Amino acid sequence: AQSVTQLDSQVPVFEEAPVELRCNYSSSVSVYLFWYVQYPNQGLQLLLKYLSGSTLVKGINGFEAEFNKSQTSFHLRKPSVHISDTAEYFCAVGHGSGNTGKLIFGQGTTLQVKP
Amino acid sequence: NAGVTQTPKFQVLKTGQSMTLQCAQDMNHEYMSWYRQDPGMGLRLIHYSVGAGITDQGEVPNGYNVSRSTTEDFPLRLLSAAPSQTSVYFCASSSGPGQGSGETQYFGPGTRLLVL
Q1: How many CB atoms lie within 10 A of CB A26?
Q2: To probe the interface with B, which of A44, A49, A88, A95 has the most B CB atoms within 10 Å?
Q3: Hey, are the CB atoms on A43 and B56 less than 8 Å from each other?
Q4: Can you tell me the distance from the alpha carbon of B30 to that of B37, in angstroms, rounded to the nearest whole number?
Q5: Is the CB of residue B55 less than 8 Å from the CB of residue B49?
Q6: Could you read off the pLDDT of A15-66 as tens digits, one per residue?
Q7: What contacts B20, CB < 8 A, 6 or more positions away?
Q8: Exposed, middle or buried by CB within 10 Å (0-12, 13-18, 19+), for A95?
Q9: Does any CB of chain B come closer than 8 Å to the CB of residue A46?
Q10: Share of chain A above pLDDT 90, in %
Q11: CA–CA separation, A74 vs A6, rounded Å?
């Protein structure tokens, strides 16, 4: 069975500092990996995704993530955060058979950017 | 395109009442899903559909029914609401494998449900 673990429930960071949000997954088949962001009182928005190819994936708003198959990780990074990045971030995995109706989400990480 | 729309935005129910959460998409997506979001638990899949007339259960299907009579609509029915169903419900759609957008799921704005 697939599962996703986000290793930090909350990450406080000062503005303009770098940040890494950690995500580990378990799956017995090839996977698709996603990071979604949820701003307060809104739905989820795709930040980036890994389907195949280059393991370094660049997304919107200056975020990037690296797929590491050996460590089964897909950590999200940003070199310099802004106050507007304060939100909840979700890592998700869908398996490679293409059944896109089934995404497994992590528990979420709240990024709190302080001035 | 309106994308994925959900109604209502907020609903209060009494235990035992029934209701239908509406979800519609105008992107001609084959795949649609319902999730519930609870604090500290992320999003959990309730039901999903891979096309009109085809539905299947997700991780937490008990207490919910779905149907998919058209490509556009995917309503979620609560037959007899319970306080444990207090949550935020999100509908999502995606184009499916082999399409230009890959596996991206597009989410609606959510429905906040309070069951007293």
Answers
A1: 13
A2: A44
A3: no
A4: 23
A5: yes
A6: 999 999 999 998 766 678 899 999 988 889 999 988 888 889 999 999 999 9
A7: B75, B76, B77, B78
A8: middle
A9: yes
A10: 67
A11: 10
The whole-angstrom separation of Cα B31 and Cα A102 is 9
With CA atoms as reference, report the closest residue to A9 among A110, A114, A112, A115.
Answer: A110
The three state secondary structure string of B9-55 is: CEEEECCCCCEEEEEEECCCCCEEEEEEECCCCCEEEEEEEEECCEE
Q: How far is B12 from chain A (nearest CA, A)?
A: 17
Confidence band, pLDDT 50/70/90 cuts, at residue B99: very low
Q: What type of residue is A7? A: L
**How many CB pairs (< 8 A) connect A and B?**
74
Cα angle, residue B106 at apex, residues A3 and B31 outer, rounded to 5°: 75
Cα end-to-end span (Å), chain A: 41
How close is the nearest chain A Cα to the Cα of B62, in Å? 17
CB-based contact B33 A102, cutoff 8 Å: yes
User: Residue A101: which of B44, B48, B98 has the nearest Cβ?
Assistant: B48
Residue pair B72/B25 in contact by the 8 Å Cβ criterion: yes
